[in-house]
Amino acid sequence: MHHKALKTLEFNKIIEQLSTFASSSLGKDKAARLAPSSDFEEVIRLHEETDEAARIIRLRGNVPLGGIFDIKPHAKRAQIGGMLSPSELNEIASTIRAGRILVKFIEEMVENGTEIPRTASYMDSIIALPELERPIIQAISDTGEVMDSASDKLKSLRTQLRTNESRVRERLESMIRSSSAQKMLSDAIITIRNDRFVIPVKQEYRGAYGGIIHDQSSSGQTLFIEPQSIVDLNNQLHEIRIKEQLEVERILLELSALAGEHASELISNVGILAVLDFMFAKARYGHAIKGSMPKLNNDGRIKFFKARHPLIDPNEVVPNDILLGEDFTSIVITGPNTGGKTVTLKTVGLCTLMAQAGLQIPVLDGSEAAVFDDVFADIGDEQSIEQSLSTFSSHMVNIVEILKNVNYRSLVLFDELGAGTDPQEGAALAMSILDKVYERGARVIATTHYPELKAYGYNREGVINASVEFNVETLSPTYKLLIGIPGRSNAFEISRKLGLDEKVIHEAKTYIGTETNKVENMIASLEDSRRNAEAEQEEAAELLKDAERIHKDLQKQMAEYYTRKDELAEKARLEAAELVNKAKQEAEAIISDLRQLRLEKNAEVKEHELIDARKRLEDAAPLSKKTKKAAAPAKKREFAEGDEVKVLTFDQKGHLIEKVSSNEWLVQIGIMKMKVKEASLEYLSTPKPVETKPLAVVRGKDYHVSLELDLRGERYENALARVEKYIDDALLAGYPRVSIIHGKGTGALRQGVQEYLKNHRSVKKIRFGEAGEGGSGVTIVEFK
Q1: Do 28 and 119 fall into the same domain?
Q2: Which secondary structure element, helix H or strand E, spans residue 280, and what is its range?
Q3: In 203-329, where do the E strands start and end?
Q4: What is the CATH number of the domain that holds 11?
């Protein structure tokens, strides 16, 4: 890739922004070395990796990438027999742990059905090293000190060391507490010089204690003396310290040798973790610029929809649609110097470079990017004082270099082509250069303020004019690219807006040729037609969206209606059948009773007995009674707009909108409006306006908040998010004081937590825990 184009298009600033999203120095280093690729297959692979990383972040929020260090130098030094420091061994253990956690995280996603084949293949290559991680964790503390538990010998030596130190201190304390010590000592304290316990003695009493002088004050009035009575004790201490140091070195050498045995695995793991960190940095950067993965092609086709310059404030940048390489291979952006043309050039160039580097680009989904062998850019003021080159000469040096190397797989960006010399000659030269590049088959975007190039765009096949819109009302560019419309001069309109005499403007127009005026009027007409067409297109698009939405809703409601109708009909049929069966059973019972009566009384059935039997028959036929009741005419009522009614033909509720004829109403049923005859309506009610009240979610008294929050093992960002939520819950619970356990570690988590708490408006005071509360590994928070 042409190095000068990377600098001209400010690709280095993209790298700077990208680096801030890396979680480790490894990821930052890979970001710093990022460069666009011209290998089509490699670019596809890079984008698939970025897309997978973006999918993981979208599904899981954050990825556990904390605790990764560049341990390659440590591993190499251990491999050749060097002794690593405790902090270096800690970094090795931390990196192994980070890899293990990340592998588990990805494996869980794969088990849940997430398709991330490239990320999963990287995870398969990470080698678990518990046989190295465990001994380091057991021997070295989070603060980088070799712990007593590292070996039995070290534990014994440190126990002896503490015992002897106590004896020395007791002996010296008895000396400094004596009555004579007040006048002989400069201060009643015990201090250390050259790793030996001493006391500060005044110069004139130097012989009172005997022993060895180790140091003196700057004034010479105080001597730091090791009394003769504790020389032997200090000697014993010194011997134990030497043995302790030798044991510590032995332990570190043993751990270093173990790390050396696994050096190749460590270096391999670090390489994979660096790639993963860089992948997720690219994904986070893509999310930050609201980017998307473009479709890639090898045919020089660019389709950027709503493309934005990634280095301009998102609240100010104007998105543009930029198409190149299909119907036309060259775009000539004409018009006055309003500032939008160069931004368009840089947007195309920078988005192309980002796409070829595997980065998401700030465009809408469905956009396409081409993979070029080279991107050439001649942009900006190239005047060189050192080489005594004018602006024109310097531009020509660049253009000559471009023409030597350009081919059909190149993207060429020219800014103000032919500027800096006589306008007529410059325009002619610009057209000749464009012809040459076009002949080579390259994709070209050129900006110019020469009016002659407007005709060039019309007269050349594969070339199209474009311009950047200018708002004459506000006297400023809108930065909106208009493809197909050449730029026109706005000098007369601007002058008129600024108050120039109309006579002066009229006279100026007489100096312009008739053909020029025709062209300007044609361009103005094209702009008006375009604006009207865009407005109508947007309105039509909105109407189409509304129609599609209504159509979908109607289809859904009709489906629900027919489903409900069939369910109700089936339910009614079953209920009717059950009632009929019951009626038949009752009738059979009645007939049986009548027969029994006839036999018992020789057919002499009295009138009251028949009446009683008839009543039982009537009771056994509830269907006919219900039907008659349902068929009874409803009470007549005058309908009014807003009444809630039942549409009998559809068995649906609705409300009246307006009366459309003497016997028809317009009824709203859900989202549908339809005409219904008054005879098919049944009045239900006149709805009253309902006052809506905001809802509040209140936790019940059974909601439990712990008095302490344990953050050990959490990543920095996750930990702070948990602290924020926990403080809110604790305040709601009414706690006066809580504890946050962050451990000692490197101190980064502790510092971050305390910085957050210091700035919280509800926190009264924070402090480290006492010895029995966890010491500096715990922060106690008191609320106001």
Answers
A1: yes
A2: helix 263-288
A3: 212-216, 222-226, 295-297, 302-307, 320-324
A4: 1.10.1420.10
Residue 661 is assigned to a structural domain of this protein: yes
Cα separations in angstroms, 380 against 417, 419, 450, 535, 760: 11, 11, 17, 35, 48
Report the C-alpha dihedral over residues 418, 422, 424, 429, rounded to 10 degrees.
-30
Does 736 share its domain with 608?
no
The answer to whether residues 235 and 281 belong to one domain is no
pLDDT digits (tens, 9 = 90+) for 256-310: 999 999 999 999 999 999 999 999 999 999 999 999 999 999 999 999 999 999 9
Q: Are residues 380 and 475 in the same domain?
A: yes
**C-alpha–C-alpha distance, residues 527 and 517, integer Å:** 15
CATH code where residue 381 lies: 3.40.50.300
Asked if residue 327 is part of any domain, the answer here is yes
Q: Residue 285's closest CA among 366, 363, 359?
A: 359
**% of residues, the chain, pLDDT over 90:** 33
| Mean pLDDT, range 393-400, rounded to an integer | 83
Q: Is the pLDDT of residue 251 over 90?
A: yes
Query: Does any domain span residue 735?
Result: yes
What mean pLDDT do residues 442-471 have? 82
Chain-centre distance of CA 441, in angstroms?
40
Judge if 578 and 712 occupy the same domain.
no
What are the two backbone dihedrals, phi and then psi, of residue 515, each rounded to the nearest 5 degrees? -65, -40
Residue 203 shares a structural domain with residue 115? no
Examine the fold and report which residue of 180, 213, 245 is the final residue of a domain before the chain moves on. Answer: 245
CA dihedral over 662, 664, 665, 666, signed as positive or negative? negative
**CA 511 to mean position of chain CA atoms:** 58
> What is d(CA 141, CA 697) in angstroms, rounded to the nearest whole number?
45
The per-residue b/e assignment along 695-716, b for 16 or more CB within 10 angstroms, e otherwise, is: eeeeeeeeeebeeebebeebbb
CA distances from 218 to 181, 224, 461, 607 (A): 22, 12, 91, 139
**765 is in which domain, residue-wise?**
708-783
Q: How large is the C-alpha radius of gyration of the chain?
A: 44
Which residue matches tokens 């980002």? 354
CA-to-CA distance for 138 and 781, rounded, in angstroms?
Answer: 31
Encode 342-353: b = buried (16+ Cβ within 10 Å), e = exposed.
Answer: bbbbbbbbbbbb
Which of 460, 481, 448, 465 has the alpha carbon at shortest distance from 522?
465
CATH, residue 669: 2.30.30
State the DSSP string of 369-389. Answer: EE--SEEEEE-S---BTTTTB
**Which H or E run contains 677?**
strand 672-677
Q: Which two tokens stand for residue 200?
A: 């500060």
- Separation CA 704–CA 403 (nearest Å): 74
What whole-number distance in Å separates Cα of residue 285 and Cα of residue 269? 24
Short-list 271, 299, 275, 284, CA closest to 359 = 284
CATH code assigned at 773: 3.30.1370.110
As beta bridge partners, residue 216 has: 223
- The stretch 744-758 carries a mean pLDDT of 83
pLDDT higher for 264 or 691?
264
- In the chain, the number of structural domains is 6
Decide: 468 and 331 in contact? Cβ < 8 Å.
no
Q: Which two tokens stand for residue 272?
A: 């994979």
Backbone φ, ψ for residue 83 (5° rounding): -95, 125
Query: Which residues, other chains included, contact 510 with Cβ-Cβ below 8 Å and sequence gap of 6+?
Result: none
Choice between 322 and 745, residue whose per-residue pLDDT is larger: 322
Q: Quote the DSSP letter at residue 687.
A: P
**Is there a domain that residue 103 lies in?**
yes
Judge if 51 and 9 occupy the same domain. yes
| Domain co-membership, 443 together with 313 | yes
